[in-house]
Each structure stands twice: as structure tokens, then as C-alpha cells.
């Protein structure tokens, strides 16, 4: 229960007599959830995310659950008196990581987001895109149980946007929850996303929405240890899974998450044997 964040009858306004931005909001974010928040500009999406992240306190109602939480704001304060490497090492220590582990994690995430070349550059001299890479890296540094992303893809180049999608897949595969706002309706297309809409100060669950375009999918054949069930993280990421023989499964996996699925299979205890991987068909190739 401690890892599930819950908003119960939550309202928020700024100032004792200010208008209500949100009121009567209820939302459960269990482990492994992937939730998209939509709404017009100024409806309170960022306020909702700040409440979920624990950065703002509700004016009424309550927020329960204590997952280890990380947050990427819409605007990251890039002019900090650090280099990216120093900033990430400092935050790693705040999260309880040893100095050595924090340094390793900082190097890994800066490399993954293509910012390793700027690791020793003062943050005030970084471009907006490079600052955003640091913002995303700091959120992923300590494997958060709840990741809150407010337009986190904005300003990233194509490679970094794809890397952030992979990181989201990794978090949910490991049982973490992710709540995000993004202006691109195709973001995380094909993933099992629950959609909630902020409208008129309230939160509405969208039901019956058209399924997103599935995108290209890889086919993965795996053989498991005797009597083993597919890892839960793999089931969360695969579009479909079918047992074709005792212990043998065929998975249909969105191409953007195939490497995450393979990693989860190979690092399971005991590990699964990957029999074959068939990449998505090339739409340009003749049939």
C-alpha cells in the first residue's frame, strides 16, 4: 500500500480566496501503472502532477502512499551552480546512494541521453536541450517507484526522446509507476496507457478511447525454465503473449520496447532462453 499513491477528494487553490484549480479529485496510481494526463492549457495538469509528486500540498483532501518519487518539471532551472556530473552526484547522495554508485549512475544516464560530452560543462552554459537531458537524468538516477513527467520530452532531440520512452518502459517493467503529460498524442503509442482528462477543475477517466496505432512490433520466441511463468515485467511490456509449447512462448513486442523485454528475460532469476527475435517487417520491402 505504501507504494501506491492515492489522491482522495483533493482540491487545490492558491491563496485563501483564490479560485479552485482542482477540486474533488480522486486518483489511484498503483505500482506498474502508466497514466497519461490530458487537458487544455491552464486546466490544472501541472498542479495535479505537483500534487502527485508531493511538491504541493492539497488545500483539501489527502494524498496517501509513500513511493520513492522523482519529478521532471516543464521548465528545469538550468542555471544551477553545478556541472551536470556534479549535480547528479549530489542528488544521488541525497537519494542515499554511495558516492561511487552515484557517480556511476550519473555517467550511465548522461551517456544514455547523449549528454556525456557536457558532463563537466557549467550548467548555466548548457543549451535548453542539454539542460532538459540533465533534468530527465536526475529523475531516473535512483530508480524511482513513481516517476512524474510534465512535458519531459519537450526540447529533447529524437534520440533522447526515444531513450526516455525506453526508460519509461524499464520503470513500468520493474513495477514502477509513471504519470505523464505530453503534447504529442502519439507519445508511448502502443503502451497500455490509462488516460485521465482534467476539465472544469475535475479529473475524468477517459473510457472507450480508440486504441493507439500499434506501431512496428518484433516477434520474440522464448523458452523458460521448467514450470516458470513469464516475468511480470515482460507481460506488462508485451502486446501479446501465447504459449506455443510447454514452457515456450511467442511474444509480440512493440519495437521501442524490445530491448527492454530482452533485458528483463535475460536478467530474470533463473534467466529465460531467447530462441529467436524477428524484427518488425520493413514497410518498404516487397511482399
TrEMBL record:
Keyword list (alphabetical) reads: ATP-binding, Nucleotide-binding, Transport
Which GO molecular function annotations are given, in alphabetical order?
ATP binding; ATP hydrolysis activity
Q: Which residues form the signal peptide?
A: none
Classification via InterPro entries: AAA+_ATPase, ABC_transporter-like_ATP-bd, ABC_Transporter_VariousFunc, P-loop_NTPase
The family database entries (Pfam families) matched by this protein are listed as:
ABC_tran
Q: For the ABC transporter domain, which residue ranges apply?
A: 5-225
The record ties this protein, via SMART domains, to: AAA
Q: Is the keyword ATP-binding in the record?
A: yes
Annotated protein name in UniProt: Putative ABC-transporter ATP-binding protein
- The organism encoding this protein is Streptomyces glaucescens
Lineage summary: Bacteria, Bacillati, Actinomycetota, Actinomycetes, Kitasatosporales
Amino acid at each position: 500500500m505504501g507504494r501506491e499513491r492515492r489522491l482522495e477528494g483533493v482540491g487545490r487553490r492558491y491563496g485563501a480566496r483564490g479560485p479552485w484549480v482542482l477540486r474533488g479529485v480522486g486518483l489511484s496510481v498503483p505500482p506498474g501503472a502508466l497514466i497519461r494526463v490530458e487537458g487544455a492549457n491552464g486546466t490544472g495538469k501541472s498542479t495535479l502532477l505537483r500534487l502527485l509528486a508531493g511538491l504541493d500540498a492539497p488545500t483539501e483532501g489527502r494524498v496517501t502512499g509513500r513511493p520513492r518519487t522523482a519529478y521532471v518539471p516543464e521548465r528545469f532551472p538550468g542555471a544551477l551552480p553545478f556541472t551536470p556530473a556534479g549535480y547528479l552526484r549530489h542528488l544521488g547522495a541525497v537519494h542515499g546512494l554511495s558516492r561511487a554508485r552515484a557517480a556511476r549512475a550519473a555517467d550511465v544516464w548522461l551517456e544514455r541521453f547523449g549528454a556525456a560530452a557536457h558532463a563537466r560543462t557549467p550548467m548555466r552554459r548548457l543549451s535548453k536541450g542539454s539542460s532538459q537531458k540533465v533534468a530527465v537524468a536526475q529523475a531516473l538516477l535512483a530508480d524511482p517507484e513513481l516517476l512524474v513527467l510534465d512535458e519531459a520530452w519537450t526540447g529533447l532531440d529524437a534520440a533522447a526522446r526515444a531513450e526516455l520512452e525506453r526508460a519509461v518502459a524499464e520503470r513500468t517493467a520493474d513495477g514502477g509507476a509513471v504519470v505523464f503529460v505530453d503534447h504529442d498524442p502519439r507519445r508511448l503509442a502502443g503502451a497500455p496507457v490509462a488516460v485521465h482528462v482534467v476539465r472544469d477543475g475535475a479529473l475524468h477517466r477517459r473510457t472507450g478511447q480508440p486504441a493507439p496505432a500499434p506501431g512496428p512490433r518484433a516477434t520474440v520466441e522464448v523458452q523458460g525454465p521448467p514450470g516458470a511463468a513469464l516475468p511480470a515485467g515482460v507481460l506488462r511490456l508485451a502486446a501479446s503473449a501465447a504459449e506455443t509449447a510447454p514452457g515456450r512462448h511467442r511474444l509480440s513486442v512493440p519495437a521501442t520496447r524490445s530491448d527492454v523485454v530482452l533485458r528483463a528475460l535475460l536478467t530474470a532469476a533463473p534467466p529465460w532462453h531467447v530462441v529467436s527475435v524477428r524484427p518488425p517487417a520493413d514497410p518498404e520491402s516487397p511482399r
